[in-house]
Amino acid sequence: MKRQGIFRFSFCSFLLTALLIPGSLHVIAQNECNSLSAPAVTTGSIAATDTDQTLRLFRDGRGGTCEFLRPPTTSAGTYDADSYTFTNTSGGPICVFVDLDATGCGVATNQISISAYLGSYNPASILTNIIGDPGLSTGQNFATSMNFAVPAGGTYVIVVHNINAGTTCASYSFTRYETNACRDPGFDLANDGSADLALFRPSGGLAFWNSITLSGAFNSVQLGSAGDIPVDGDYNGDEASDVAVFRPSNGTWYRSTNPANNYNAVLWGTSGDIPVEGDYDRDGITDVAVYRPSTARWFVLRSATSSYSEYAVGAVGDKPVPADYDGVGKMDLAAFRPSDGLWTTLASSGNFGSYGLQVPFGTSTDIPVPADYDGDGKADVAVFRPSTGVWYIIRSGLPAGAGQFQFVTFGTAGDIPQPADYDGDRKADPAVYRPSNNSWWVNRSGGAGVFATTFGAAGDIPTTAPNPHLP
């Protein structure tokens, strides 16, 4: 049985010491789904009189997502289980997210887990019809999450069971979120699931946002001024990217081009803070958030509840690299430590209660470029080496030793990496913006080959994958 908590991953020392190149930092902002209805809460308890389930899923820490279900294995024993049946009435395919809260179980030895089935659940054959698996039980933080795909009109069954035979749980609850249109394209003004080429042009007291689709449709709006940091995302829940800026001089976010609403301004942060916007509460809306390098503290303002959370992840000198590493539809807090190349994530799947992984990968001069390159719904740890134009990627969709470590040569010295899904296949494409000649180069994973064009001017900041200028 794999222990819960920190997952350590390491490569041979020659691979680690090879990743030595100068760089900057990127934060991938838009990572969200469209909520179809209000979250639905179900409560229950585990008792000896519940249905007996033969075997249980082996907790390998890898779980499945709406994009990809890894073949699970089983552990011996007989367990007590509850099952709940629901139907997808949305008229189309959905992605269902489930958060399990086991606080009412009392002690960690009474921890429980969940799974999901399409159509029907057979407690004597738990691999039949399985479609969802969180990879871990609730553990010390009494929480876990999973997500799975359901076709239009499909019936799905959620099963809650103990993982230590004979134990009970006085009270648990799970919350379901039915969603569709999940995406992580980067800047996507048209909401077509494909990233646009986007640039922020600071110019004295004015700033312009210019974007163009790969098919040539151009758009330009005015927002911001010199010194502002571009922080585009979906701030109003309409599924299209919104232009936005963070102004370090007064700690204000401006998230609309409409002066009538004061540009939808909100005060959050201070000079020196690094914006780390993203959907931290899975409501389909980008949350304003900052990382404070002086104290290694994170401050997240949640749009779903208008409440704020503060976290300590990383250490002074670390760089923030938030992304959805566990694939549960929420941004995970994550830090990259240049001194030894260590990546550390605080997993949202456990309600931000435990570390998801610790991966030594890269050193001080690498550019972190986390994104979902293999299309499994989870962000991959990755770095870009400007001197050779090589991308090094740990593909989360594959187990260690099975081609998980990927090399992609794409780019050259001086390029600014802009990974995003430019072709709409739900996989991030390696891409670069070349300031020396204002050209874009996109290595499309969908089979259409390399796309190249000239777009931009001297001083422009690429913002398809925002914030390339961060330290």
Explain what you see.
It is a single chain. By secondary structure, the protein is mainly β. It is built from 1 helix and 34 strands. It has one helix at residues 13-18, and strands at 32-35, 40-46, 51-57, 74-87, 94-101, 112-118, 130-132, 143-150, 155-162, 169-183, 197-203, 206-212, 218-222, 229-230, 245-247, 252-254, 265-267, 274-275, 288-292, 297-301, 308-312, 319-320, 333-337, 342-347, 354-360, 367-368, 381-385, 390-394, 405-409, 416-417, 431-434, 439-444, 449-454, 461-462. It is globular and about 70 Å long. It starts with 12 loop residues before the first helix and ends in a 9-residue tail after the last strand.
Topology:
Layout: H1 13-18, E1 32-35, E2 40-46, E3 51-57, E4 74-87, E5 94-101, E6 112-118, E7 130-132, E8 143-150, E9 155-162, E10 169-183, E11 197-203, E12 206-212, E13 218-222, E14 229-230, E15 245-247, E16 252-254, E17 265-267, E18 274-275, E19 288-292, E20 297-301, E21 308-312, E22 319-320, E23 333-337, E24 342-347, E25 354-360, E26 367-368, E27 381-385, E28 390-394, E29 405-409, E30 416-417, E31 431-434, E32 439-444, E33 449-454, E34 461-462
